[in-house]
Amino acid sequence: MLGTANATAGTTPAPTTAMATGPGGSGGGDDRSNTAIITRTRTRTKRPSLYRVLLLNDDYTPMEFVVLVVERFFNKSHEDAYQIMMHVHHNGVGECGVFTYEVAETKVTQVMDFARKHQHPLQCVMEKK
Ligand code: TYC
């Protein structure tokens, strides 16, 4: 399990230092040999997998609603949101953003819930990059 051990990003664990005692020290355990044990575990960082969040075209969802969705849930300007909407309208599918798994999943759920609430058939999906 070399690849998965200690996978906290960006941290270096402090050395674990056993008590070293001076000559004739009265500590407990290894004071007879006056030794210290210093161990350091190697920090392994792994970049997370990334996921595209996509909107799918349909014949019924109003263009202005799609623009609002892209502005609201993907933090795009009105101009960028309009361009993304038109890309989806013409090509059938388009990318709104790239996120880690849990963030992408949240975006998909938010968009689908919002579309359903307004009774539009807009579809939002995620795919691994
Ligand atoms: N095709 C829709 C229309 O003409 C607009 C639309 C764009 C719908 C993008 C969905 O993801 C979409 N009203």
UniProtKB/TrEMBL annotation:
Name under which the protein is recorded: ATP-dependent Clp protease adapter protein ClpS
Self-association state and partner proteins as the record states: Binds to the N-terminal domain of the chaperone ClpA.
Record keywords, A-Z: Hydrolase, Protease
Function, in words: Involved in the modulation of the specificity of the ClpAP-mediated ATP-dependent protein degradation.
NCBIfam families cross-referenced by the UniProt entry: PRK00033.1-2, PRK00033.1-5
Similarity-based family: Belongs to the ClpS family.
Residues in Adaptor protein ClpS core domain copies: 46-124
Keyword Nucleotide-binding recorded: no
GO terms under biological process: protein catabolic process; proteolysis
Gene Ontology molecular functions: peptidase activity
Domain of life of the native organism: Bacteria
Listed Low complexity bias regions: 1-21
Annotated gene: clpS
Region: Disordered, residue numbers: 1-34
Upper classification of the organism: Bacteria, Pseudomonadati, Pseudomonadota, Alphaproteobacteria, Hyphomicrobiales
UniProt-listed InterPro entries: ClpS (IPR022935), ClpS_core (IPR003769), Ribosomal_bL12_C/ClpS-like (IPR014719)
